[in-house]
Amino acid sequence: MPKSRRIEVITSKENESIKRLKKLHEKKYREELKAFLIEGVKVVNEALDNVSETINLVVFSQEAIQKYGEFFDKCINLLNSGKLRRLVQVPEKIFEHISTTTTPQGVLAECSFFDKGLDVLNHHNRVVVIDCVQDPGNLGTIIRCADAFGFECIVTLDGTVDVYNPKVVRSAMGSIFHIDIVRETKKEELLETLREKRFALYVTTPHGNVDISTLSVDNRFAIVIGSESRGIDAAFLENATKKVKISMPGKAESLNAAVAAAIVLYELRKK
Amino acid sequence: MPKSRRIEVITSKENESIKRLKKLHEKKYREELKAFLIEGVKVVNEALDNVSETINLVVFSQEAIQKYGEFFDKCINLLNSGKLRRLVQVPEKIFEHISTTTTPQGVLAECSFFDKGLDVLNHHNRVVVIDCVQDPGNLGTIIRCADAFGFECIVTLDGTVDVYNPKVVRSAMGSIFHIDIVRETKKEELLETLREKRFALYVTTPHGNVDISTLSVDNRFAIVIGSESRGIDAAFLENATKKVKISMPGKAESLNAAVAAAIVLYELRKK
């Protein structure tokens, strides 16, 4: 069976690759090693289809090899064709040790960082800026929405949860592989770049004077999504081209941050 | 100080009121006692303003009395005027014991159930039906959205997480007190009622043939919100007046359930 010749079998927690995977649960090691974990068949599959060159290795638990046989075969083929560097098989116990979830599917991969610098804004006309969103589930949901509504670039600011946090990656459901990401940017630098490149700047605030449903959209714009509790940073409010609001005819005073972002991105989708 | 005369101080976990509050963490006791817990200053305040007659008692921790002095005074006034039945003060330890959160604010209340029967549909023209949403955070978020966009009635079907679950109540942020709720309804019974009362029935499905943004809305309608994983029940698909979809020009194949619901309710808001 030459097909499976290069699959590595690892059975010890003390193995260097396993120790490295475990380290990637923590942000400080992710920054040091410039790599992060993705988990679950759907997400790993999306990564293989979109950013395979950044994948350092794919790990299967023994049970997952049986359960996701077709996907395992795909990985073997990529390994044989040289498009996947390493394919690793581990016992369930080791998988549970490296897993980022409490109910692991048994498939996980290590990716190198693939975020871009601010100069990537040269190639985009519609940018989503995320400021101070701290809940990983919310950030993942917003990235997934941005992707669904045809945005191709996301900029996160300093103070926003790490894009490479396993919970963000999980709730983004593969969307981080479809979109250019600029990460942990300084506010001043971003504002400077947006000015230089002549982006209109939209902010969403309950005190906005333009109903998002009636906004006439500029050719080139950045939309700022803030957190529910902290609202929009003063620097963005001062520099805003338009301050938009979501009209709420009912009694609730506000919306969940991810929901408000979703509605704004929906209204700004490519029509 | 006659003002504070009737405030009860409870210092033992063995006190019957404390035991009862602890029991209300579990659905089986909520159903038996027809009561549930609400927690946090904002939510308890919303309840006092909207459904004070259903509140059986309000509990403050000693620290919370200091911290939320103004709100405590409001409760004392309601107690003195007979609009609040009981006001209880407990040490922090006891509060932590009865709290439904890991970071308690120190304010909690017991409410009697206030859900309605299906005949409440006589009074409404715009109804949100929730089928099989199992995540409490998602259900709470959907209720908050429905309230924000001017819906006044929600029907949850058997198989949906309990509206009175503390996590649902928390993420709904007071919106359950603004809206008529019909709870744990049988699908057949609901469909029969909707037919009788001549409601149009809208369902959202990726296979819908009407873009939600172009839907011309009937005077009287029910919109069915399903779960992300299970989709819309066949009985609703068969009986649907219109099958709507959210257009997604980007690469993500689907949206988070709460986000999809939010966009649909936004599009169907009273304009």
Automatic annotation (TrEMBL), chains A, B:
Family classification: Belongs to the class IV-like SAM-binding methyltransferase superfamily. RNA methyltransferase TrmH family.
Short name of one Pfam family: MRM3-like_sub_bind
UniProtKB keywords: Methyltransferase, Transferase
InterPro entries listed in its UniProt record: Alpha/beta_knot_MTases, MRM3-like_sub_bind, Ribosomal_eL30-like_sf, rRNA_Methyltransferase, SpoU_MeTrfase, SpoU_subst-bd, tRNA_m1G_MTases_N
Domain of life, source organism: Bacteria
Record's protein name: RNA methyltransferase
Residue stretches making up the RNA 2-O ribose methyltransferase substrate binding domain: 37-117
Natural source organism: Caldicellulosiruptor naganoensis
GO molecular function (one): methyltransferase activity
GO biological process, one term: methylation
